[in-house]
Amino acid sequence: MQSYLGGMAIRPILEVPDPRLKTVSTRVETFDDDLRTLVADMFETMYDAPGIGLAAIQIGVPKRVLVIDLQHEGEDGEPVRTPQVFINPEILDPSDEHTLYNEGCLSVPDQYAEVERPSTIRARWQDLDGKVHEEPMDGLMATCLQHEMDHLEGVLFIDHLSRLKRQMVLKKLEKLRKAA
Asked: Number of structural domains, the chain?
């Protein structure tokens, strides 16, 4: 596993209602140092937020790039990082069985809501060298990957909610912003 950190930049995260979050991201065709810098900045930004996933569009870059790290606590209480990069990800074979998960998003700060998604998926993606990977995923990883992939289509988790619930979330967010 390569290290993605080291002297990189923390970039501002776009928040609703920024119209750029509705952008459909384009495929990555060039696997170069610019892409490596983008990914390193994404990890740095995500860890700083803190979050477990980030799509490039969330920092204003409309490319099909995601970073995920479902860090867990080590025996010493420190987080154990397992950074993963997904470039041009696709979902194959989503299960008919669905799971409800209380999701949040760095672009909709401090707001959470139950979202239903396929419980298991088979995912295909490229790594930083352009090599193709494919594997089945379930649990939080399946949920997180689907959530981040929605960003690539300009979809936020609140777009999966009923109109009423979405308005309640946005109202709460507005109240928090005014109080800050």
From this structure: 1
Give the span between the Cα atoms of 20 and 58, in whole angstroms: 8
Range of the domain at 27: 19-179
Catalytic residue check, 116: no
pTM flag (> 0.85): yes
Residue 10 belongs to a domain: no
Catalytic residue among 73, 148, 153, 174: 148
Q: Coil, strand, or helix at residue 70? A: coil
In a domain, 12, yes or no: no
Domain assignment present for 55: yes
Q: Render pLDDT for 88-131 as a digit per residue (tens, 0 to 9).
A: 999 999 999 999 999 999 999 999 999 999 999 999 999 999 99
